[in-house]
Amino acid sequence: MEIKRVTVSDPHGLHMREAVKVAELARKHKSKAYLCHKCKFANACSILEMVTLEATNGVNIAVIADGPDEKEVIENICKLFVEKI
After folding, report:
1. For residue range 24-78, what is the model confidence (pLDDT) as tens digits?
2. Residue 73 in contact with residue 26, Cβ under 8 Å?
């Protein structure tokens, strides 16, 4: 299991458009990936779950993955946030 923290840098926070991009990326990997904010977990393949995290601009979220390509999926998801999706 791998965990990495990343800051939401979009002025509108983690909303539908960003969640779609994260979900598309997460579905390409074999590992299970999750986002966590304020003790709420969201499956990275579920757009609705990610939007309900209510992660606004500037907050830190945890990206968690478990599986054969966990490091790769975490790095790719974090890269989306760093590049401001």
Report:
1. 999 999 999 999 999 999 999 999 999 999 999 999 999 999 999 999 999 999 9
2. yes
Q: What is the pTM of this model?
A: 0.92
Beta strand 32-37 pairing with 2-7: unpaired
Cross-strand partners of 38: none
Q: Which run of H or of E encompasses 49?
A: helix 47-51
Question: What's the topology of domain 2-82?
Answer: Histidine-containing Protein; Chain: A; (3.30.1340)
Tokens, residue 62: 């945890």
Complete DSSP assignment for 14-52: S-HHHHHHHHHHHHTSSSEEEEEETTEEEETT-HHHHHT
